User: What shape does this take?
Amino acid sequence: MTTPRYTVEEQTARVFAWRHGFNATFLIDLGIKLGLFRALADTPGLSAEELAGRLGLKPRHVGVWCRTAYAFEMLEAAGDGCFTLAPFMDQVLATPGHPRYVGGYVQLGTDAAVEDFLLCRAAFRSGENRPFQGRPESFPRLVSEATNGLQYMSARKVLPEIAAVKAALGAGGRLLEVGCGTARHLLQIAKSFPAATCVGVDIDPTSIAIAERNAAAADFGERVRVVAGTIDDAAVHGPYDAVVMVEVLHEIAADIRQDVISACARALRPGGWLVIIDETYPGTLAELRDPAFQFAVQTAFEELVWGNDIPTREEQERLLATAGFGTPVHRETFAEHFTILRAQRP
Assistant: This one.
């Protein structure tokens, strides 16, 4: 008989810790939506009463929030009862648009995942999904904000580090983003490569409507355009020197995933690059408990009723090989949780 990994007391403590994580998530959500983090970032050293007064909130409620946030080490406190943000929390929770900001990811949980988890109770019997498409405008905005850091690093680091892509886009080349959503990433790429033409395509009409407004406001003229439809619909503006997908591959239905990757290959000019930033699902039981795969495991559960299935490494590489991309596939881990795949069309 093998010795259990945890005692009964340890198992109980782990469940309590998971439950407290639920509270921490909603504590952060309140701090963002009520402006508590932002107020402390702007004016460090406020008492709970002063913070409540500035925001028109009830002192008792703000006091409990501050003390709980201090217990979770989101806040620091002085002996006089005044609170400040813990180190770096101004970037992480008080500054939307900062590459380190994760408030969008938290709110994707509180505003969307909670509803989706409630749907799971029926979906486990019916199999019914609630896909990305057809949701209110707040949903693609949250998804865009949740992936802001990935978008920033893709535009500022990942793409420029591919010498051929940097050279082509710097000389006025063309880039296609598949699953461009609200065009937030597309516009960052346009800023990073001021001579390039950037085209985004998405099948979600709600996202495209937001993208069109964002592109118009950015005023890049003909350098940036968004297309409602498929990759083949966007191919008329190619061929492309690079095709990029950020957190999109796993959202493509498994039965059409190969068709989409093959369409990406067709949209590229010979020598062009496909760049995929996504997650990689464990391929073995051992990997399910490997910390390197934990983000993908959680995403797969959170997006269960979206109908999403995250591909394993083997599937990712099979998709690229079948589409005719050259080998080897360049693979690296990014920000501990994400996979960057770079494949070149022969």
